[in-house]
Design a protein that fits this description.
The chain has four helices and four strands. The protein has a four-stranded antiparallel β-sheet with strand order 2-3-1-4. The longest helix is centred in the first third of the chain and has 14 residues. The protein is elongated, with a radius of gyration of 15 Å. 19% of the residues are buried. The model has no long low-confidence stretch (mean pLDDT 95).
Amino acid sequence: MPTYITLYRWTSQGIQNVKKSPSRITQAKKAITKAGGKLKGIYVTMGQYDVVAISEWADDEAASAFLLAQGAQGNVSSETLRALTEAEFKRIVSKI
């Protein structure tokens, strides 16, 4: 399954309710599994982004649907990167 790295920032709503973040993370883990994805790791970070998640999804559509639903809740905004494994990168480069 493709890997995605999502960089989250709390919205003003999200930071106002930051004490609820641990339960929101638990809910997100369950929602990822229910939607067919796999959460490989989640980290609360310091700096430009507040949370970083590494997940696997069947395809871009599945990842996008989950992320749109998450954003619609209003607690976070996100930027998602499709991450290539070393093997995937080698296959791509071999086509050059």
